[in-house]
Write a structure and sequence with these properties.
four-stranded antiparallel beta sheet; seven-stranded mixed beta sheet; 49% strand
Length: 123
Amino acid sequence: QVQLVESGGGLVQAGGSLRLSCAASGRTFSGYDMGWFRQAPGKEREFVAAISRNGYRITYADSVKGRFTISRDNAKNTMYLQMNSLKPEDTAVYYCARQRGLWSTETSEYDYWGQGTQVTISS
C-alpha cells in the first residue's frame, strides 16, 4: 500500500510563493512517475505538473508554466512543487498522485492520491 501525504499549503497574497511537499511511504517511490493536480471549488480536478521517476522528464500545464517548478528527491521519498508569482486563480486543493505506468496528464492514469492541501491566494 502506498500513502501520499501533502503539506505546505496555506494562505498567501497574490505574487507570493509557497512550496508544497508530497511525502510517500514505501520503498518504490523512485520507480514511479509522479504528478500534481489541483481542484478549485465547483471545478474538475486539473493537471498541474508531472515528473518522471528520474526527474529528467517534466510537463507543466500552460497555466503554471514559468511560475511553478516540480522536483523530487528520491532519497527522501518526497516530491515538491515550488509555486511562485501566485495568482488568485491558483486557489485550490492541491493533490499529489502516482502514475500507473504510461506518461500521462489525465487523472485516470494516476492510481494513488494524497488527501490534498489547501492553497488560498488573496488578491
